[in-house]
């Protein structure tokens, strides 16, 4: 099983998603994330991938849960982390073709072509209140 992590960032009623540039979800919108490196914790992976794919920086996160999915004959375990204190301006990098902020309601409604469970994890993070506080030193793109 391939272990990977996702970073969920919500600010001002919007969730940060990246359009994947590589398989298994090329072309779909999803959370910044990727495979865990040897010796890396699930949280450290989420924080690293967030920075590599969007330029945002976070130092901690709260675990939202884990997903187990199969794609292209491979099994993945994705540990999802809410990162409410992520700072910086998002811009796509690494394997992210685009980075954009979408209204929570649009994501939950499934109005985008998204990776599995993006809607469910967005709803969970919003429901748990794991969002950036109004007035936090962050800038939306």
Question: Could you walk me through the main structural features you see in this protein, from its secondary elements to its overall organization?
Answer:
The chain has 141 residues and is an alpha+beta fold. The protein has a single domain, classed as Nucleoside Triphosphate Pyrophosphohydrolase (Alpha-Beta Complex). Helix content is 20%, strand content 34%. The chain has helices at residues 42-54, 104-108, 118-127; strands at residues 2-8, 10-11, 14-20, 29-30, 33-35, 62-71, 74-82, 96-103. Strands 5-1-7-6 form a 4-stranded mixed beta sheet, sandwiched between helices. Strands 2, 3, 4 and 8 form a 4-stranded antiparallel beta sheet that branches. The protein is globular. Mean pLDDT is 89; it is low at 134-141.
Which key features would you list for this structure?
141 residues, alpha+beta, Nucleoside Triphosphate Pyrophosphohydrolase, 4-stranded mixed sheet, disordered C terminus
